[in-house]
Amino acid sequence: QKEVEQNSGPLSVPEGAIASLNCTYSDRVSQSFFWYRQYSGKSPELIMSIYSNGDKEDGRFTAQLNKASQYVSLLIRDSQPSDSATYLCAVNMGGGADGLTFGKGTHLIIQP
Amino acid sequence: DTGVSQDPRHKITKRGQNVTFRCDPISEHNRLYWYRQTLGQGPEFLTYFQNEAQLEKSRLLSDRFSAERPKGSFSTLEIQRTEQGDSAMYLCASSHQETQYFGPGTRLLVL
Fold it and tell me: pLDDT tens digits for A44-69?
């Protein structure tokens, strides 16, 4: 069964520090990887997409992908209280399938 | 640029009733997806349309569930003979290529 695994947390990080969120996936042929942020009671909001090995930076966010290790991560620099949310890792498992497979999400708490 | 919209935002129904949800994608997006999310879980893929063609259906989509996208624009998701286990947030997403953008969701409660 194709799976995406995340530590559910909660992950508690002091304001201004770096938050590191991790995700592993089971399907080696996966090609597309996404991070979504979800506030309680709201729908997922796209943070980052990444398709190639290495790092991709967008403002305070950096996504890292290592296909050999089947691992993708999200770093949030200078964490703010407004970053407190659940972060969902999503993978397009490929093989012609276009629906995303999501992890359960990591609950991040930024402590003021 | 208007985002994905969904209607209704909330629905309370009694077990055994039928419900229908609507999704309007971002106007230039030809791909439309339905997901279901329960508390503490990530969204689970249900089905996918490219234009009006339904190209993929999850095993989660039982015979009581049906989705349509008749003109390749808006889509409807119908649940027949609702069960308490159908209580969830139903999310619609649309995309032009790889990246999917989600609507606000329809929260269903089956009593």
Answer: 999 999 999 999 999 999 999 999 99
A103 touches chain B (CB under 8 A): yes
Q: Is the peptide bond before A14 cis (omega within 30 degrees of 0)?
A: no
Question: Chain B residues with CB-CB distance to A under 8 A?
Answer: 31, 33, 35, 40-48, 55-56, 58, 89, 91, 98-105
In sequence order, what are the residues at sequence separation of 6 or more whose Cβ sits closer than 8 angstroms to the Cβ of residue B97? none
For residue range A12-39, list pLDDT tens digits in order. Answer: 999 999 999 999 999 888 889 999 999 9
Query: How many A×B Cβ pairs under 8 Å?
Result: 56
Residue A18 is classified by DSSP as -
CA distance B69 to B58: 17
User: Which single residue is written with the structure tokens 């080696």?
Assistant: A28
Radius of gyration of chain A (CA): 13
* B64 backbone φψ class: left, alpha, beta (φ>0; ψ -120 to 50): alpha
